[in-house]
Specification:
Helices cover about 45% and strands about 15% of the residues. Helix 5 runs parallel beside helix 6. The chain has about 260 residues and is an alpha/beta fold. It has a domain of about 170 residues: P-loop containing nucleotide triphosphate hydrolases (Rossmann fold).
């Protein structure tokens, strides 16, 4: 039997939590700006960490992590998720149109109607163009693209210690995808996932020459053709990076 997805009884929700959520939604409704952003950078540059901070500091922003969205769509067996799973079962790459469709689907949620933080997409200029086409139809667009630039030596240290829980495959299992770092965020037991007890594997290096070239082309597309790129010095400490990100985005976000 499928797990129940019924919302919690409001009588059981603490009053402070209800008032906080009500206040957040009221401020959200009063916010006219639809300034969505894209985060670009290699694995280990701190994009996801900063996305969570931006989300907390900006009313009405949802974090759209494409990898997580694909897993969730497949697990929930949405129409697009079923198509994505069919492609993966045949050993094919999920098409750009499907991924853009999943992003468009997520944008319909109340939490994403105002603006979103897109993490992990686009990775090619073609994907960027398809994303632009979809956003144009939705009468919205991208306000800023944050490029998390980082020195190769620092990136190598961060990536070398990264581990991932791939339970059930990269896209399929809803609880897979948790990441750890042997130095910065170690699991409770070395080599073991905290939640399932399953084994962890070393993360695949996503910084090949081809991937780097593609990433630079995307940055160039948004910089030269759109004028939207802001470079973030991702080699700094997380707190320093947060200060730089907030300085770049926070005031415009609440305007």
């Amino acid at each position: 039997m499928a797990a129940s997805t019924a919302p919690p009884n409001l009588e059981d929700v603490p009053s402070l939590a209800l008032f906080s959520e009500l206040l957040r939604r009221m401020k959200c409704e009063l916010t006219k700006s639809k300034r969505s952003i894209i985060l670009i950078g290699p694995p280990g540059s701190g994009k996801s960490t900063q996305a969570s901070i931006i989300k907390d500091k900006s009313y009405c922003s949802c974090h759209l992590a494409v990898d997580d969205m694909l897993r969730a769509s497949v697990a929930a067996k949405t129409p697009l998720g079923v198509k994505a799973k069919e492609a993966m079962d045949m050993g094919e790459i999920v098409s750009d149109d499907l991924v853009v469709g999943i992003i468009e689907e997520a944008m319909k949620k109340p939490s994403c109607r105002k603006r979103f933080i897109l993490d992990g997409f686009p990775r090619t200029v073609v994907q960027a163009q398809k994303l632009d086409e979809m956003l144009k139809k939705q009468c919205t667009g991208i306000y800023k693209v944050l490029n998390f630039a980082i020195d190769d030596a620092i990136l190598e240290e961060r990536i070398a210690g990264r581990w991932i829980h791939p339970s059930g495959g990269r896209w399929i299992h809803p609880s897979s995808g948790r990441t750890y770092h042997s130095k910065f965020a170690p699991p409770k037991t070395p080599g073991v996932d905290d939640i399932t007890g399953g084994p962890l594997i070393q993360c695949k290096d996503d910084n090949t020459t081809a991937v780097l070239k593609s990433r630079l082309e995307v940055i160039d597309y948004y910089a030269k053709k759109k004028g939207l790129v802001a470079n973030i010095h991702a080699e700094k400490s997380p707190k320093e990076v947060t200060a730089e990100v907030v300085d770049t985005l926070f005031n415009p976000f609440i305007a």
